[in-house]
Design a protein that fits this description.
The protein is of the alpha/beta class. The chain has 18 helices and 13 strands. The longest helix is centred in the C-terminal third of the chain and has 30 residues. The protein starts with 7 loop residues before the first helix and ends with a helix.
Length: 438
């Protein structure tokens, strides 16, 4: 591995790290953060032959990627030994590798804690601690395990914390573990690369799969499709294969050997489409992924940054398309706020205006309902007092009515015609009674 020109994060971080300063660094994915802390580690361990370095990563894929980069930087003739401690691999092989005395330990918090509890790993000589993608480790619930690991590391150490994003939780963690850190921020926070083309497609849920097949057939090169669940990944890969599209699925439930084989086949272009969960959005190092398709939006808005960071790496171009259904508008709004803080006010203003337009209709509807109910009676009483008086007169007792009025009512009941005094084929006794009373 040869470096001709350092990336911005490497240019700023390496000199500070070589001086022994703690660093809190952030930069876009694909900008060379791994080498930014790997080179100072190698230089520091070569000066102090009794010291160790520990690198913590959130996922197995990222830990494996860091392992490969450090191994290439070391070369085959270097005396510094390195070990990878991640879940899903044989712990027996890891125990035998630890007995060889490695000085660079790279792994996930869970497996490193396992070895500490087994007393197969001693970190008392650790001089450099690296926390890579710390925000993701906190999202995955590794905060307590990180604290347990730090308890076994001396306080007199150098701590380097790198990530693509630095939210408030990471700043608080930096205050806990870092001593007077140097803050490095490359580029605009959560900036989308200029060589990345983004597309957003509003679509119904029942149309997503057909649209996905259409997009896959129209695109060439390596394509990464993000799903929400592990089960959906396996089902999608099988469904695509049934429709003639070669695809592989990767998620956290697969054994590490199978995950390594799938990633290797994807790198070697044995199949063009890789379907995965957010577990592959950090640490997946493929030379060039031309397209990223967000079939489902991520649960955590920050993960969108890492998803799109799988393409358009190292100055190359890339394309991202996101499917958005009616139930995902709030998620997309949260993502937009992260990508551009100014859009937060725009969204609030637009939503306020839409509510303002809808509210008169709602008020009008409520008023219309009111007129049909209670207000209508009061309206009749105020605007038509005579009608109200007639109603009262009609409701007077029968004893106040004249004989003629009572006779008319009786005639109506028994069926007399208006201009005829004869009965219309009625009972003779009833007719006789009416005539007698009158």
């Amino acid at each position: 591995m040869s470096f001709h020109t350092p990336t911005p994060i490497q240019e700023e971080a390496i000199p500070l790290a070589l001086k022994g300063s703690d660093i809190l660094g952030s930069a876009q994915t694909g900008t060379g953060k791994t080498a930014a802390f790997a080179i100072p580690i190698i230089e520091g361990l070569q000066k102090d032959r009794n010291s160790l370095a520990v690198v913590l990563a959130p996922t197995r894929e990222l830990a494996k990627q860091i392992y490969e980069v450090v191994r290439e930087l070391l070369g085959y003739r270097n005396e510094i030994k390195i070990v990878s401690l991640i879940g899903g691999e044989s712990i027996t092989n890891q125990l035998s590798n630890l007995k060889r005395g490695p000085r660079i330990i790279i792994g996930t918090p869970g497996r490193i804690n396992d070895h500490i509890n087994r007393k197969s790993l001693n970190l008392k000589k650790t001089k450099i601690l690296v926390l890579d993608e710390t925000d993701r480790m906190l999202d995955m619930g590794f905060g307590i395990q990180i604290a347990d690991i730090v308890k076994h590391i001396p306080d007199q150490r150098q701590t380097l914390m790198f990530s693509a994003t630095i939210p408030t939780e990471i700043s608080k963690l930096a205050e806990k573990y870092l001593i007077n850190p140097k803050r490095i921020s490359i580029g605009i926070k959560n900036q989308v690369p200029k060589n990345l083309k983004q597309e957003v497609l509003k679509i119904n849920s029942n149309e997503k799969y057909n649209q996905l097949v259409k997009e896959l057939k129209e695109r060439t090169g390596s394509i990464l499709v993000f799903m929400k669940t592990k089960y959906a990944c396996d089902r999608m890969a099988k469904k695509l294969a049934f429709d003639g599209i070669k695809a592989g699925a990767i998620h956290g439930d697969l054994k590490q050997n199978r995950r390594n084989r799938i990633i290797s086949d994807f790198r070697n272009n044995k199949f063009p489409v890789l379907v995965g969960t957010d577990i592959v959005c950090r640490g997946l190092d493929v030379p060039q992924i031309e397209h990223v398709i967000n079939f489902d939006l991520p649960q955590v808005p920050e993960d969108f940054i890492h998803r799109i960071g799988r393409t358009a790496r190292a100055g190359l171009s890339g394309n991202v398309i996101s499917f958005i259904t009616s139930s995902e508008h709030l998620k997309w709004r949260a993502i937009q706020k992260i990508l551009d803080p100014k859009i937060q006010n725009k969204i609030k203003d637009s939503s306020f205006k839409s509510n303002k337009k809808e509210s008169p209709d709602r008020k009008t509807n409520s008023r219309t309902v009111g007129k049909k109910n209670l207000p209508q009676k009061s309206h009749v009483q105020k605007s038509h007092p005579k009608a109200a008086q007639k109603k009262k007169t009609y409701d007077k007792p029968k004893r106040n009515k004249t004989k003629e009025q009572r006779m008319k009512e009786k005639r109506k009941k028994v069926g007399f015609l208006k201009n005829d005094n004869r009965a219309k084929f009625l009972d003779e006794e009833l007719v006789y009674k009416i005539i007698k009373d009158s």
